Amino acid sequence: MVELKTAASIDAMREAGRVVAQALTAVRESAAVGVSLLELDTIAHDVLRAAGATSPFLGYRPSFAPTAYPAVLCTSVNDAIVHGIPTDYRLRDGDLLSADFGAELDGWVGDSAVSMIVGSPRPADERLIRTAERALEAGIAAAVVGNRIGDISHAVGTVCRAAGYGVPHGFGGHGVGRRMHEDPDVPNEGRPGRGFPLREGMVLAIEPMLIASGRDGYHPAPDGWTLVTDDGSRAAHAEHTVAITEAGPRILTAL
Ligand code: MF3
Ligand code: CO
Questions:
Q1: What are phi and psi of 251, to 5 degrees?
Q2: Contact at 8 Å (CB) between 70 and 85?
Q3: What's the count of helices (H) and strands (E) in the chain, helices before strands?
Q4: CATH topology assigned to domain 7-251
């Protein structure tokens, strides 16, 4: 069931989203050679506490997961696509880090992700990340009343494929509200004009995931959570929580 949010609820979600943006900004500013993934988790957790917010990730156990999620941040490095669990791994020069974070404030959830390069960038990684961001922008631009979910999916997928990248299936965007994962699903590829009609008050997390090699295959790592590419090539992820309003798409997880 797709729950429509009132204008007041969307304003409340914006406050949760602001905490998410603050935490991801702190993670971006801290991600450097020699910093561990657990240190980044602590930095994000500190922002959450300071804002009086809690984590929708910590303890989360969806049907696909073997264990409760043990952290507040997902840190997916290089061939990890999403859902990387922070460990004592220390970032190295040239690593591609995707950081995914959620906050719950006053009962409302925000969910967002950014990808970044640690230290000296490789041009191929810069292009991959830029394309993830462009795919997200295209998906957001399609999040308007009168369109359908398939229009968002098509917009996202077209940008990814046109650049030659792979798109992992089975994971993608979702409705978000009082819970982190609500209906409807927002796949990262689809057909225009198909799927659930977009209405004022829908709030969606749109989250393209791209694989550099152009192949789509992935599998869970031994931890059961981290999704890694089958061919070892690098992946990028970008995500915003977006409200559909009569005035157009409103990004709730920007600073
Ligand atoms: N943005 C991610 C998603 O929607 C958040 C996963 S949270 C986790 O799948 F706790 F499941 F890791
Ligand atoms: Co999400």
A1: -80, 125
A2: yes
A3: 4, 13
A4: Creatine Amidinohydrolase (3.90.230)
148-174 tens-digit pLDDT: 999 999 999 999 999 999 999 999 999
Could you identify the atom of ligand 1 that is nearest to the CA of residue 180? Answer: 4
153 Cα to the center of ligand 2, angstroms: 15
Question: Average pLDDT for residues 88-92, to the nearest whole number?
Answer: 99
Taking the CA of residue 112 as reference, the ligand 1 atom at the shortest distance is 1
**For residue 237, what pLDDT is reported?**
99
Measure the CA–CA gap between 186 and 168, rounded to whole angstroms.
13
Does ligand 1 have an atom closer than 6 angstroms to the CB of 44? no
Q: CA 14, 15, 19: angle at the middle one, nearest 5?
A: 110
| Chain-centroid distance, C-alpha 131 | 14
Q: Give the pLDDT of residue 64.
A: 85
Q: Which ligand is nearest to the CA of 62?
A: 1
Cα(173)–Cα(205) distance, integer angstroms: 5
